[in-house]
Automatic annotation (TrEMBL), chain A:
One of its GO terms (molecular function) is methyltransferase activity. PANTHER family: TRANSLATION INITIATION FACTOR EIF3-RELATED, TRNA (ADENINE(58)-N(1))-METHYLTRANSFERASE NON-CATALYTIC SUBUNIT TRM6. This is tRNA (adenine(58)-N(1))-methyltransferase non-catalytic subunit TRM6. One of its GO terms (biological process) is tRNA methylation. GO terms for cellular component: nucleus; tRNA (m1A) methyltransferase complex. It is found in: Nucleus. Coiled coil: none annotated. Belongs to the TRM6/GCD10 family. It comes from the Eukaryota.
UniProtKB/TrEMBL annotation, chain B:
PANTHER family: TRNA (ADENINE(58)-N(1))-METHYLTRANSFERASE (PTHR12133), TRNA (ADENINE(58)-N(1))-METHYLTRANSFERASE CATALYTIC SUBUNIT TRMT61A (PTHR12133:SF2). GO terms for cellular component: nucleus; tRNA (m1A) methyltransferase complex. It comes from Donacobius atricapilla. This is tRNA (adenine(58)-N(1))-methyltransferase catalytic subunit TRMT61A. The lineage of its organism: Eukaryota, Metazoa, Chordata, Craniata, Vertebrata. GO terms for biological process: tRNA methylation. Catalytic subunit of tRNA (adenine-N(1)-)-methyltransferase, which catalyzes the formation of N(1)-methyladenine at position 58 (m1A58) in initiator methionyl-tRNA. Catalytic subunit of mRNA N(1)-methyltransferase complex, which mediates methylation of adenosine residues at the N(1) position of a small subset of mRNAs: N(1) methylation takes place in tRNA T-loop-like structures of mRNAs and is only present at low stoichiometries. It comes from the Eukaryota. It catalyses: an adenosine in mRNA + S-adenosyl-L-methionine = an N(1)-methyladenosine in mRNA + S-adenosyl-L-homocysteine + H(+). The gene is Trmt61a. Residues 256-276 are annotated as: Disordered. Keywords: Acetylation, Methyltransferase, Nucleus, S-adenosyl-L-methionine, Transferase, tRNA processing.
Amino acid sequence: RKITFEKQWFYLDNAIGHIYGTTFEVSSGGNLQPKQEVEETATETKEAGTDNRNIVDDGKSQKLTHDDIKALKDKGIKGQEIVQQLIENSTTFRDKTEFAQDKYIKKKKKKYEAVITIVKPSTRILSTMYYAREPGKINHLRYDTLAQMLTLGNVRAGTKMIVMETCAGLVLGAVMERMGGYGSIIQMYPGGGPVRAATSCFGFPKAFFDHLHEFPLSKVQSLLSGTFTTETLPADPEENALGEEESNGLSEEKQNSLQETEEEPAAEAPMEVSPAEEQDTVDINAEDGEFKENKEKENKENVREKQIKQWERRKKLKEAAALLREKNADGLIVASKFHPTPLLLSLLEFVAPSRPFVVYCQYKEPLLECYTKLRERGGVINLKLSETWLRNYQVLPDRSHPKLTMSGGGGYLLSGITVVLEKGRPDSEALKMEEPASKRCKLQDLPC
Amino acid sequence: MSFVEYGDTIKDGDTAIVFLGHESMFPVKVQHGTVTQTKYGVIRHSTDLIGKKYGSKVTCSKGGWVFILHPTPELWTMNLPHRTQILYSTDISIITMMLELKPGSIVCESGTGSGSLSHALIRTVAPTGHLYTVEFHQQRAEKAREEFREHGVEHLVTVTNQDVCKNGFGVSNIADAVFLDIPSPWEAIGHAKSALKAEGGRICSFSPCIEQVQRTCLAMEEYGFTEINTLEILLRVYNVRTISLQIPDLGKAAEDNSSAGFDSSDPSHQGSPCANLQQGTVQFKSGVPLREVVGHTGYLTFATKS
């Protein structure tokens, strides 16, 4: 299968059998496998200037022309050698400071030496990748915010979690990874079915899906009021754009030094379940590519298959409903495009007392309202509205400084703990809790 | 109760968290016949706690009440007895994700310190993973062992009392991840590398000062670690407040204020707009940053062995 990535295309056949973290170089159409460590191109005679007082920008420092460079490329010469050529033909290179020389080489390497590293999918890789490439699909949930959610929600093996997300299944995947196949998850979904495009990138073993349930949001009210039946199912799910989702987040190159390692799709890795198979067992949207091929087959079989599917869905729905009815879930994670207040007021009913819950929202204002409404409802304590900032650093000898700061755009969290709700009593806690500016324990004496 | 398993009811020997209201809480060891004093009065363990559900309201002798919460690593972090400077949940959460920890992971940690991070690591790698933690201070190592026993997680953790910079982690080629929170992490990078699995793994080092980070990065590069990345994470907490701002008196009549194209009250707010007008104020909800916030805890340097 042909894969396109960062203006390159290649086949993955050659990558099979290598360990994760192997770096590959792209040749015309296939993968070569270069060594792990590329020997540094030793710039002969380490000459360098001290400052740029005599360097004039006349646009003529590079003696090779565009056409020359193109000719080199067309000959299929190694990128490394092109870079060497460029350096030798740069009149100002020797006058540049050592740092500037480093920078020059780095820039050219980036352009002419394309290397790709294939790594194992994980929450770290996938959440970083989605935030960089498809932030809209995950409601701009930054990866450090996702990390907070997993910790604040005390997500771990053996719990019974309720997850409501519209983040392409990324949050679900993150929760599944942390639970390691122990315990159960009930995913609440809007519309016709849960979207799990990102979930399938993780390449979870089949067993992880045995205790993954789904329940339609549109049935929550009837479940709470006790009028729930399985007679009417939500409309059949539309195709979710799995194909498209997959192709945009395939693999990532590693520009020789480091920085942007990214995942490669679970589907390509050896010992993986192919997505098609996986979808069959996991997703209730069975109607995907496979199905189309079967179209020539008799219609009868079609109908029967549909009935079996219908029956299976109904069974799964009953199971999920039973789990929810126990109202003893160990936590609630919400990260969706919907207004959080109604979701929370309803879904918290299914959570046992003394359990954490976390709500993500791209904006602060809805969470302000949610906070107030939860106070009125009672049954929750330790409510906290928070946000994290993340700052990356460049650390090099004599050249250390912050890279870029990301603030805002990572979203906000409202977290808290459930307690036994005393029916029929107005929330007297409000008086006690709403005292002004709580004194937080200060961080004292940083050991420096 | 255990830190790796939820229990419904409070039992003798449990560690529970007594919640008094807005972020004031303390841990308590539940024992028959014991009493605990709070500002709302006395809690008698035998009658007030044992057998009750976690999350219930407990009325104390003076008629005041508290909530009793099930312990979690996060609540423990807020309440543990400090023997050293500790890591807080904000840093812990990014460490856990960036080290790719999950059930079954084998982790090495040094130093154990007050065990704040240790509890979170154990929670994440349970039930099949293991934590090897190294602490060179004998008393602290002992204390940590005792705590792990009390919290029902001793089967998931091994505490070793030695100097990690000299003697390493006491294990080799078995770890998926290594975490360092010591004054001179660069001296332990070699040991970290040999503790990690042959097929690779992740490493993280926490240091408050940039000079420590620089030396650590150099050491990591020397030992062939890749994907070296340093970051810092900061938490901002907001208080939810209803704010009212006064409308300046520009000499207009009161009823003109609203017709001047200025919406002087939020319709969703319960206060009557007329009253607001008379006082000449505008009300709105706001998330107000706390006056004092943590500005810096430390730099986190991550890298991969492959």
